[in-house]
Amino acid sequence: MGEFELIDRFFKRGARHADVGIGDDCAIWTPSPGHQLAFSADMLVEGRHFLSTVNPRDLGHKALAVNLSDLAACGATPRAFLLSLSLPRVDESWLSGFSEGLFELADAHACELIGGDTTRGPLNIAITVMGETPQGQSILRSTAQIGDDIYVSGHLGDARLALEAFRGNLSLPQTAFEQARGRLEGPAPRTALGCAMRGLATAMADVSDGLLGDLGHILKASGVGAQLSVSSLSGLMLTTDAWACPREWMLRCVLSGGDDYELVFTAPQTARDRVAAVALAFGTPVTRIGSIQAGRDLQLLDESGADVPNTFRSFDHFA
Ligand code: ADP
Ligand code: MG
């Protein structure tokens, strides 16, 4: 099978909302009136972002999910994406699993594949997504205000827990392992919640490299500090009910875990009821974990208000 037959067979489905989709030199797209375009790119490299044993359907899902998560973090509605694939060989069963997982998530978010690139080489998946926000309503990292509450969506730490189990560093009961593995291999981008935070969250980011690091980006960009209450973190793992995670592991997974694809955001204290109503409306739990402070420090406080030494680090490819 040649390159173009591969594209036709596994990726071309006919333009839906694009003016011109797959098959011409460029895709052509007309933005909705009164909207700004939001772009983001994320690459998944075998051995670095996923294990060679992962099933192709999950990989197709995850490759797009991590990109949709970035759009959600800006409050952008997904519209379209480009897929650049480097493949060692044409493996039809791999390609059909991969494209199924990819399109299932794409369709669930009405995000259309409008083009890309295909070459032979080590397995590498690069996606560029495009979304829209009403003019001036994107949610940035740089606008957190002193006194704001800090929230996270959903669950944190389980993806890291699964990774540690895969590496043989800890052993989990079967139920907890399956839950954690589901979080690692099938992240659910918080698209609806992210969009609903327009006009409500003062700043937002997605948690991809670990809570402390990603919240740290908000703090740095906004020129503020924060206090986090460690007791509010203890219920954040999905696996909490299935397995009593030792406190040290819990903190490590929740604070510096990575691969969570949840949202961390700030909102004024006066917006607590509205935040709770949005969380309820979208069926996504939201947990208040601390507050924005003057200064530049990120302080962790225990139940009694004492400092917890912060020795946790987020993921950095070049650190
Ligand atoms: P060019 O040679 O002009 O770079 P290609 O020959 O690589 O274009 O691609 C032909 C068409 O197929 C283009 O519309 C391109 O966007 C699309 N395409 C290539 N690879 C993919 C892919 N993996 N997924 C979706 N569309 C693709
Ligand atoms: Mg061309």
Protein topology:
Blueprint: H1 3-10, E1 35-45, H2 56-73, E2 77-87, H3 92-108, E3 112-120, E4 124-134, E5 149-153, H4 158-166, H5 174-185, H6 191-196, E6 203-207, H7 211-222, E7 225-229, H8 247-256, E8 262-267, H9 272-281, E9 286-293, E10 298-301
Helix pairs in contact: 2-3, 4-5
The chain binds adenosine-5'-diphosphate and magnesium ion.
Please tell me about this protein's structure.
By secondary structure, the protein is α+β, with helices and mostly antiparallel strands. It folds into two domains: 3-134, PurM-like, N-terminal domain (60s Ribosomal Protein L30, Chain: A, 2-Layer Sandwich); 149-301, Phosphoribosyl-aminoimidazole Synthetase, Chain A, domain 2, CATH 3.90.650. It contains nine helices and ten strands. The protein has helices at residues 3-10, 56-73, 92-108, 158-166, 174-185, 191-196, 211-222, 247-256, 272-281, and strands at residues 35-45, 77-87, 112-120, 124-134, 149-153, 203-207, 225-229, 262-267, 286-293, 298-301. The protein has a six-stranded mixed sheet, sandwiched between helices. It has a four-stranded mixed sheet with strand order 1-4-2-3. Helix 2 (56-73) runs parallel beside helix 3 (92-108) and helix 4 packs across helix 5 (174-185). The mean pLDDT is 95. The structure holds adenosine-5'-diphosphate (ADP) and magnesium ion (MG).
